[in-house]
Amino acid sequence: MKITDLISRESIKLNASCLDKADAIHQVVDLMMKSGRISDREVFEKRVFAREEEGTTGVGEGVAIPHGKSEAVIKPGIAAMTVPEGVDYESLDGEPTKLIFLIAAPAEDSNVHLEMLSKLSMMLMDSNFIESLVAAKSVDEFLQIINDAQAEKDGDNEEIIPEEVKSESPRLKLLAVTGCPTGIAHTYMAQEALEKKARELGYDIKVETRGSGGAKNVLTAEDIREADGIIVASDTAVPMSRFNGKKVIETKVSDGISKPGELIEKVLSESTKTYRASETETVETRDSEGIGHKIYKDLMSGVSHMLPFVVGGGILIALAFLIDGFSVDMNALPEDLRGNFGSITPIAAMIKDIGGTAFSFMLPILAGFIALSIADRPGLAVGFVGGAIAAAGKSGFLGALVAGFLAGYIVKFLMKATESLPKSLDGIRPILIYPLLGILLIGLSMFYIIEPIVGVINTGLNNWLNGLQGVSSVILGMILGGMMSIDMGGPFNKAAYVFGTASIAAGNYNIMAAVMIGGMVPPTAIALATLLFKNKFTETERKSGPVNFIMGLSFITEGAIPFAAADPFRVIPACIAGSALAGGLSMLFNCTLMAPHGGIFVFPVVGNGLMYLVSLVAGTVLGAVLLGILKRNPQI
Prior knowledge:
10% strand
């Protein structure tokens, strides 16, 4: 496969003129749009700018390689633009950028395409190649330069060793690891720069790349044992404990591109310290994070691992009720059997048992993976036990939440407290000391502190929720529905969603119904508004708007984000109003939902489904009408 197979003629622009970095990105995204490789310009461009916020893709030497992985990418592609006069792209070397390659990759891509993209990245480390492309007079010449360079690169398999060092033996052996958040360009450019500089200096080097296709050219135990120094140039997490006892330096991936010589010199310096791994290294790297971000990250670790159990178990339990609903005449059943609804028929009873088993793992999983996020693997067992005690007791979801955080920090404390023990005991710390003392401490804490206190709070909260009637329940539904639209996937949205899933565990199914319908409204309201008020949206927005019907009906609130980001002060209030109305109506009509996700696909198991649909339509219409009133006509 050729690199030029990923470049359409329409996506190449020679002799462009750009005002600034943002203008350059706008222009090159336009080129990508012309190639037909992306379905949603706004979504993809937002991802490109988000990548720039993580660190500039202006790699220096007159080159910038903006890139983005997104669901909006139909198939991998490259757009190219030359700017002979240069543009200030905030490059690493501070020099003007004259050559821009935009790389678009689907959220899930084949390794073949990744290899092509990495080859282009490495070819751009050649200054002659860059100069030839900038000077190209036609698109055909531009493409031919790339083809010739790739052919030369593919055929160049011999390692170049300077004459003056050929006779030297043994040669120093270096190792390196490169990686960037997107894993498309910087990863491989850093690899090429380090390999090239090492060859010039007469050193052997092996570089592990941690890109989109996963870890490649992975360093073996033998490689590490023989290494004279290890360079970790990465903006993503790298397993470090394997480098214990070796000289290691850690730096940004951009330094691997722009300062390979300095890194090699530094790692071989006598002043470079030997790396010492410990069980706490994962925890210690978190110190640079803000407290709020740490808590949010740990909580989401637990919630994300818990959700499959809630989704699978909840839908199966709801399906059991649906089966009994179609199979049994409730009015004909004696009063004492009506309480068994959902497990009256054999098939319903079996499905409900399976779903209930899945549900029983929910709180232990939540607490266990919160603890894992805080204290790494030693925290997992301690968190599981704390969550299991909460599930069996009265503290429920809130108790499991507290147990997860407490378990993580108990283990973290044990790690610190046992650091001074003899090295000969290192092997038994993670398999004996941490689980034994950790489980004992979390058990005592749960029985004597958390269960008595949080149990009372949890019981009172559930009783209050169960007792909500009329106006009070409607207001709660409006608040939760509105929260789902405030930041569409952010902390407010997640807080409402977590509250909804917790309510399922407590048997308050009307709350989850209000939460889900609140999250469905923003995309459907926007989709309807693009049809009713076409003059309020750009041509691109009108084309992509109807897709939000699918997103909204599938309970994917994030489909509204591009529209909200483009006009937040008008779009977000309209969506909040529509979501609040839908959530309030759902509570008013006493709609219930036992599944925490699924959108329209779980409507068959919604209690009072017809009025639930009415609530969704009402919220959608209100949101769309407000969008038509609040939004201004786009400027042409």
